[in-house]
Each structure stands twice: as C-alpha cells, then as structure tokens.
Amino acid sequence: MTGLPGAARVAAFGPRQIALVGAGAGLLAMVLAASAAILDEPMIFPSLGPTAFLLVAQPANPVNSPRAVVVGHAAGLVAGWTSLHLFGLVDAGSAIAVGVSGTRVGAVGLSVALTAGLLLGLRSLHAPACATTLIVSLGVVPRTREHGVMLGAVVLMVVFAIPFRAAERRRVASS
After folding, report:
1. What is the DSSP track for 108-133?
2. d(CA 16, CA 32)
3. How many helices (H) and strands (E) in the chain?
C-alpha cells in the first residue's frame, strides 16, 4: 500500500542510538510496571511494549504522535469492548484460560476489523492498538473500569515519552 501517512522510513541506528532506544523503551515500560505494582491496576500490558519502542525509536513518525497513540489505543479498547458485548463474552472468562470458542473467533475478528477501520477513519495508524483490541476481545481484561485504567496508562506513557520527542526535534533542527 502506498500513500499511507507515516510510511516507514527506517534510518540506520549506530551503537549509541541502539543503546539509547533500548534504554528509553525499557524505562517507559518500567514506569508503567512500577505504576501497576504500586496501584495494583492493569497499567502495563503487552501492546505497550511495541508502543514504548516506537515512541523512542521513531518519535517524529506521525503514527507515533501522542494523538495517534492515544486515539489508536482508545479505538482498540472500544472495538474490543464492543466485540465482547456483541458476542456475549463479557463473563465468559479469558480465552487463555477457557480456550477459544467459535464465538470468540468471531469476537476477535470483529475487534480487529473495527480497530483497523477506526484507525484508518481517525487517521491514527498506531498498529499496537490492534494488540490492545485483542487483549480485550480475548477476555484478558474484560471490564470497562480496567479499560479506563489502560487508557490512563497509555496517556502516562505518552507523557513520559515527551523528552524523546523533544530530543528528536532538537536533533533534526541541528542537522
């Protein structure tokens, strides 16, 4: 597909940049893991790993803008929640614990399709949001209150990633 905003242009990373990206992404993940431990809330979840990496490795890419990240994960949460409800799976338990039924297959497919449509329609092409929708539609985190906490974690990650965006702007300006 051509013409999508934020088409990947991967620059070569030297040893220093590799170390900084790894340390930065790890630091973002640690902030959320520590928050989860302190608050006993789901503030760290699998789709935030790739989000942390992208926020640090390509902070200037439009698909990693604060808007794209927050709107993308919000779309994934809404799509996953909608799918859980439409397929009557809110109280069915996690697919990891109880297995994947035919109904769950439908919920998963719908959640990813809805998320993809929302990401494109809202011009917020943050791919890790499709993992967020699976976390919800698979029943791993089925409760609405927890979805609010998860979205709060996304916002917190975006806030802690601000220095990486600022450093990238300074780097580009000095080039």
Report:
1. HHHHHHHHHHHHHHTT---TTHHHHH
2. 25
3. 8, 0
* Count of domains observed in the chain: 1
The pLDDT assigned to 9 comes to 59
117: its two tokens = 């449509």
Residue 4 lies in a domain: no
Contact between 92 and 139 (Cβ < 8 Å): yes
In a domain, 6, yes or no: no
Domain enclosing residue 128, as ranges:
15-166
Contact assessment for residue 132 and residue 80, using Cβ atoms and an 8 Å cutoff: yes
Residue 171 lies in a domain: no
Question: Which residue numbers in the chain have pLDDT < 50?
Answer: 1, 4, 7
Phi-psi region of 139 (alpha: psi -120 to 50; beta: other; left: phi over 0): left
Residue 141 maps to a domain: yes
Check residue 35 and give its pLDDT.
Answer: 97
pLDDT digits (tens, 9 = 90+) for 42-82: 999 999 999 999 999 999 999 999 999 999 999 999 999 99
Q: Is the dihedral of CA 154, 79, 68, 135 positive or negative?
A: positive
